[in-house]
Amino acid sequence: MTAALPVSLSILDQSPIISGHSASEAIAATIALAVAAERLGYRRYWLAEHHGLLGLADPCPEILLTRIAAATSTLRVGTGGIMLPYYSAFKVAEVFRMLEALFPGRIDLGVGRAPGGDMRTANAMSGGRYRGAPEFAEQVQDVIGYLSGALPDEHPFRDVVVQPARTGMPEFWMLGSSDYGAALAAALGLRFTFAHFITAQGGDVVTRAYRERFQPSPLVSKPHSMVAVFVLCAETDAEAERLAACIDLRRLQMDAGINGPIPTLAEAESTPLSESDRMRIRQHRLRAVIGSPSRVREQLLALRERYAADEIIVVTITGDYPSRLRSYELLAEAFELHNAEKRK
């Protein structure tokens, strides 16, 4: 295999609960995968926040990441992301000040504005007062102000003490799947991640616009972007296609409003599909990269160029935990991550 172009690869873990397994087993698999990720040479390990979904086990990534950070030593760990409309900006700042105190120089704070579940659950989470997007920009600025100790003079809580004091600043990332988050990140001078695994339409335009409109800030002097991609890598294209049946069925179930665990391969292969189902699967596949190591590598490099992205972060879900781990192993080999780490 020819030497890979320098690429920073990271992992976004949604802690999938596979049919026949418990949430506790899913969380244990997340911890084991994070340890493997460090060994394989991945740069970051982010945890997603979801609520009320029977297929995803992590409603509080800020807690689980402490376990991940304690089990690793060099991996950057973070949130992809904290769903900010649910929370007090002050409390988020306190939590991440504490995380920086515990694991200095290794913490990423990614924030988003999606509910991470259905709206009924969102209202339950927020005591019936889910704020949604209108206050999001103000919340983002407040979190940064509390973390950096640089709230504006006119801010009503400028003199409030945020503990632990004198800790470092986590890397702050804006997450998004539309032009809103990108525009806000550009205006505030923040790093930006586009969720290609959520929508394959227009992300390259959004991310390039972010880079063109970026305003330097005390946090970031120049634009820095990442693209988040669903990837399933196997020894051969045929095997990857076979394994992808699980996530194909999962997405059809989500379309139908079915709240359940991730289907196993046996469940997926025994489920009959209509022509309408197959059409929807083809549409969903536009936001995924599926294939052998060489095919996946080629497509990810093309996506990085299309998005003008500095980094790639990958989310992988299959119908069993060993094939998920194997996908990440093959991807690390395809990009020669260990050699990339040595070249740094």
Secondary-structure map with pairings?
Elements: E1 8-13, H1 23-40, E2 44-47, H2 61-71, E3 76-83, H3 89-102, E4 107-112, H4 119-125, H5 136-148, E5 171-176, H6 179-188, E6 191-195, H7 203-213, E7 225-233, H8 237-243, H9 245-255, H10 265-269, H11 275-284, E8 288-291, H12 293-307, E9 311-315, H13 321-334, H14 337-343
Helix pairs in contact: 1-2, 1-13, 3-5, 6-7, 9-11, 12-13
How would you characterize this protein structure?
- With 344 residues, the chain is of the alpha/beta class.
- The chain has one domain (8-343): Luciferase-like domain (TIM Barrel, Alpha-Beta Barrel).
- The protein contains 14 helices and nine strands.
- It has helices at residues 23-40, 61-71, 89-102, 119-125, 136-148, 179-188, 203-213, 237-243, 245-255, 265-269, 275-284, 293-307, 321-334, 337-343, and strands spanning 8-13, 44-47, 76-83, 107-112, 171-176, 191-195, 225-233, 288-291, 311-315.
- Strands 1-2-3-4-5-6-7-9 form an eight-stranded parallel barrel, surrounded by eight helices.
- Helix 6 runs parallel beside helix 7.
- 44% of the residues are buried.
- The mean pLDDT is 93.
